[in-house]
Amino acid sequence: MSVEQFAPYQFITTNNNSESRIQSQLAKLQGGSDSDGDSSSEGKPKSPLLLCFIGLSHAREMNREVNLWLNKWNATSIVKSINIDAQFPRLVNRNTIQSKRCNASIIAAGQWSAGRKPPGGRYRGLPPTTFDDYQTEVRDMILSLTALTRRWRFHI
């Protein structure tokens, strides 16, 4: 394997200031202005920002790491992070996301669609999802999520 294969990609590295930048953002959140810069709620107690990681093992591990960072930075009163299980994009449930009151959601569902299914599970032996079916699943998931009436952010 050669590094030449990565030539079309642009990699951005962070420097030592990344932690101080994050600390600065956390301080802004704690100070009463929301993530869009609206300071109309300044001075009022705010509930913590809730990040929801949706999927299975990948989402669970991202959630675990974020919680480690939040604990390290003493930011658990400002930002909280949870995991919501969803094996496939078609199982990402907007009602669950709404009921948990997620401010932002990171969706990491797709590994099972590609064919990785635990041997003892209910989906064992099923073939991988075709590209056309996967595209339909993801499109339908996005349409369902964007149909939410309140402002909501998600990242895939």
The gist of it:
With 156 residues, this protein is of the alpha/beta class. It has helices at 18-30, 57-72, 94-100, 131-146; strands at 49-55, 79-85, 104-108, 153-155.
What does it look like?
- The chain has 156 residues and is of the alpha/beta class.
- The chain is 33% helix and 14% strand.
- It has four helices and four strands, in the order H-E-H-E-H-E-H-E.
- The chain has helices at 18-30, 57-72, 94-100, 131-146, and strands at 49-55, 79-85, 104-108, 153-155.
- Strands 2-1-3-4 form a four-stranded parallel sheet, with helices on both faces.
- The two termini are 28 Å apart.
- Mean pLDDT is 78; it is low at 33-41.
Mean pLDDT: 78
Structural class: alpha/beta
Main sheet: strands, sense, barrel? 4 strands, parallel
Strand arrangement within the widest β-sheet reads 2-1-3-4
Helix content percent band: 25-40%
DSSP summary, beta strand count: 4
End-to-end CA span: 28 Å
Element-by-element helix/strand order:
HEHEHEHE
Residue runs with pLDDT of under 50 for 5 or more positions: 33-41
Report Rg: 19 Å
- By DSSP (H or I, 4+ residues per run), the number of helices equals 4
- Tell me the β content: 5-15%
Q: Name the shape in a single word.
A: globular
